[in-house]
Design a protein that fits this description.
257 residues, 10 helices, six-stranded mixed beta sheet, single chain, alpha/beta
Length: 257
């Protein structure tokens, strides 16, 4: 079965059930929005898929292979990329360093080759640098290659963090509020990147987002969580008119027109 299939996924923290019997399938080459009020379980669900949180019950399958219970690194190696709401910074890392770090799975030389700068290590490091520079150029930030990540504008850091996650060539990308803190121009730029990833690379994307205008124009389908349960799953236009969804966000269902 092709795609990322979530089946009856449940997550408990002591006596609290954060995610309850959640199920849906995200397809390659499509953007699935995951929305809901604060505390609905959205980030917990992404943490389960990416291996940060171990599910209490249920199944997470990528192209038929079970991922539930695997470590973060093994899940990433199988093709799941994760971008957090706030970019992760490593002290002293430049934008180029950050993207080169995203290539680590493709570097196969040993410690001795690195210590003695053997040809295999030099070739692979040169290839990683070339890929990283090309990725920075693709997001319009080649001029920032040697700038410390901590000194970049917030919007630039988020774009670099997204590009870093793509260096490992994931098949599915999990995004947690990618446009939070961005201005309108930066939102449009990131939206264009996500469309290209979907339409050109065929990447599957699961997107947690509170910006409903972006969800409506970018997502192919939307899953709505409330109190850990799925309350709607449809195309954006239908979901955003759903009475249960409006009640979850507004606290009460709107009056009939």
């Amino acid at each position: 079965m092709s795609g990322l299939a979530i089946t009856r996924l449940t997550v408990r923290f002591g006596g609290l059930t954060a995610v309850r019997d959640v199920g849906f399938t995200a397809a390659p080459g499509r953007i699935l929005g995951l929305i809901g009020p604060n505390g609905a379980g959205k980030s917990t669900l992404l943490n389960c898929i990416s291996g940060i949180t171990r599910p209490s019950a249920g199944s997470i399958r990528l192209d038929g292979t079970e991922l539930a219970g695997l470590s973060m690194h093994r899940i990433a190696a199988r093709g799941i990329g994760r971008v957090f709401q706030h970019p992760e910074l490593v002290a002293g890392f430049t934008a180029l360093d950050t993207l080169r770090a995203g290539c680590h799975r493709d570097l196969h030389y040993g410690l001795l080759a690195e210590l003695f700068a053997l040809p295999a290590a030099r070739r692979q490091e040169a290839a990683a640098r070339h890929r990283a520079l090309a990725a920075l150029d693709a997001i319009g930030l080649a001029a920032d290659a040697d700038r410390d990540m901590a000194l970049l504008p917030y919007g630039h850091r988020k774009l670099v963090d997204l590009a870093r996650s793509l260096m490992a060539a994931p098949r599915f990308l999990l995004l947690d509020e990618p446009v939070a803190g961005l201005n309108d121009a930066e939102i449009d730029r990131l939206a264009d990147m996500l469309r290209e990833l979907r339409d050109v690379r065929g990447l599957g994307i699961v997107l947690v987002e509170h910006n409903m205008a972006l969800v409506a124009r970018l997502c192919d389908e939307v899953v709505v969580l409330d109190a850990g349960r799925v309350i709607a799953h449809d195309v954006p236009q239908a979901v955003l008119r759903d009475r249960a969804v409006m009640a979850a966000y507004l606290g009460e269902a709107p009056a009939d027109a």
